[in-house]
Amino acid sequence: MKRILLIHTGGTFGMALKDGTLAPSSFIQRIIEFVPEVKQIAEIESHIVANIDSSNIGIEHWLKIADVIVQNYDDFDGFVITHGTDTMTYTASALSFILDGLSKPVILTGSQRPLSEIRTDARNNLINSVELATYPIPEVCIFFNNKLFRGNRTKKIDIWGFDAFDSPNYPPLAEVGVEVKVYEKNFLKRKNFKLNVSKNFSNEVFCVKIFPSVKVDFLMSLLELDIKGFVIEAFGSGNLPNIEERSLIPFVQKASEMGKIVAISTQAVYGKVDLTLYQCGKDALDAGALSCKDMTTETAIVKLMFLLAKYGDNVALIREEFYKPIAGEISED
Ligand code: ASP
């Protein structure tokens, strides 16, 4: 029988499990009380990293989860992480960058209703995640409502419905219906399957969503802070205001001259940033901006955090690496 390690971090999923001490042994017992089926799928052990709302998850939790995976890597066939939905995509992106050379499935899941409640989606999400974690999927994924996505391509799109996640620019890796359909052709084509762990992130990054009449002075004042990289969530294909006093191009120019990275993502959900499509994007490109292309804003932020920590002040290298996929988060041209 395959062996799966269940790593708990918190979120709505485990709310009913809060009573008691939440030691790994009692946690796994409670899970099996509610979802006895998982025992038929695999031999399961558990590890508690935290029991918090995922709004409170930070770099230290990403690293702790990665440590648990690395320490148990040879003893398990797959890993299922129960996590709040709010920041699940950030954690998935971070793990996908940390765990280079991953050859086993790491599946994050959660739920919109707690496991103990009727009509809960937690049971379905857990059973299917455990089942999929027995397949040889060499990726960090998110499973939600019958679909398995590449984690660093997902977005939380629904607060109420059970279809909480979508992967707007990359097809699912598997779907669960009457049968399990695994789309191997969509898996990451890794060059090497030897786990190589990088565990540094910088939080000297900042993300700004622009809007009509956004005050240029406010953005300019951010340049006085110790921010090394910006993700600007711009309009459409990556457009910024570029005329007269509302132009943000001087901001991009000045930031770039100061050796700061400015990466442009989009407020649109589907499609990719193309800074050559309109003059508003082209001016930003000429002033030194990078394009997030088809990366989600969430993943672009985490990638910038990762690259800044990895390459320090080598801005030229960071700019080059930003366009290269680390774990399938961006499409190659
Ligand atoms: N606020 C919760 C969290 O992200 C929501 C959830 O679990 O779905 O932890």
> How would a crystallographer describe the biggest sheet?
8 strands, mixed
> Which regions have little confidence, pLDDT < 50, spanning 5+ residues?
none
How much of the sequence is in beta strands?
Answer: 15-25%
Q: Please, how many helices? A: 10
CATH superfamily of the largest domain: L-asparaginase, N-terminal domain
Topology order in helix (H) and strand (E) letters? EHHEHEHEEHEEEEEEEEHEHEHEHH
Query: How many β strands by DSSP?
Result: 16
**What is the residue-averaged pLDDT?**
95
- Count of all domains: 2
The CA-CA distance between the termini, in Å, is: 42 Å
**Radius of gyration from CA coordinates:** 21 Å
Give the CATH class of the largest domain: Alpha Beta
Specify the helix fraction band: 25-40%
**Strand numbers in spatial order across the main sheet:** 2-1-3-5-6-7-10-11
CATH topology of the largest domain: Rossmann fold
**Protein structure class:** alpha/beta
Q: Architecture of the largest domain, according to CATH?
A: 3-Layer(aba) Sandwich
Ligand types: aspartic acid
State the shape. elongated
